[in-house]
Amino acid sequence: MDHDTFIVTLKDVELSFNSGIFYSQKNCILYSNEHQEACKIVDEFKPELLKGRTVVKIMEPIVSIVQQNPQNYYHFLIESMGRFQFLFDEVLNQPGNENMRVLVHSTARKLAQDTFKLLDFPLERIIWYNPNIIYNINQIQYADWRWRKETDLHQSDITRRYLVPRTVVKKLAAHFKLDIPKAPNLKVVYISRSDASVRMVPHIQEKLLLNIAISIFGESNIILFSGKDVGMEVQQKTFADADIIIGPHGAGLANMIFSAKGTSVVVFPIKPNSDNCFANLAASLEMDYWLIPEISSYYFGNYLIAQNGLNVFRQVPR
Fold first, then answer.
1. 226-238 core/surface letters (b: 16 or more CB in 10 A; e: else)
2. Percentage of the chain with pLDDT > 70?
3. How buried is 26 (Cβ within 10 angstroms: 0-12 exposed, 13-18 middle, 19+ buried)?
4. Which of 83, 107, 232, 287 could hold 143 in an S-S bridge, CB 3.0 to 4.6 Å?
5. What distance in Å separates the CA atoms of residue 75 and residue 104, rounded to the nearest whole number?
């Protein structure tokens, strides 16, 4: 196991700002999670900005899944909900805690509402976190993890902070799993980022890729998926019985959390290939993970596919 997972219990603390740093009334930072530390979000904490903010007192014990980038699909679905699942098993689902509430970032409200509905978790147990308010909290618990130094092979990689422990991923996937029969025919889900601003495959080249996929798998076996404005229930059902998932590096790949063990995931990577969050997710879920480096893009660029890339794509795992 590469991570130590744990729950932090803090008393008489305050919480404010976008990333949810815990601090004392004397403006001393008490706890900052692994994600925040790596991204230097601690620098966000500026006591002078607290002046004039509304103070909300919370006397009841609560838990929090507030963290950086909650509106990002991967960070919320895998990281924040991973924290939730850990807290659910260890705290919220314990006798006497049936009404304990959860602090959730308000910028992820629609995504969070849809996701909690998938888990049948009552929305009335959510407190929507406003980063411009000071929360004075009597007792709060937070799930977190740390890489073990002796097994941390990614110490030079800042994105290792986005890698959720495998035990947490497995528990989250188990709760998301749909009990549906396997489709009789092969199902291939191609994730398009045509609705994104970066790491897109240009329309003409994406059409070439899809034509190759159709020639290999058959048109009726391919689902073209774009996540924009698609509800969580539809996304869950789309990926639940997928045999193969294909797509560029991007948050849509997080939907493999809904898929079964043994699913093949074929990814067009970024260059340099320095972000291992989806590789970690696939490994945690015991999936086959394939990279096609001949089809790659810079993180803030777009994909340009040469003939060699198309040739390699023709060898995509069946």
1. ebeeeebeebbeb
2. 90
3. exposed
4. 83
5. 13
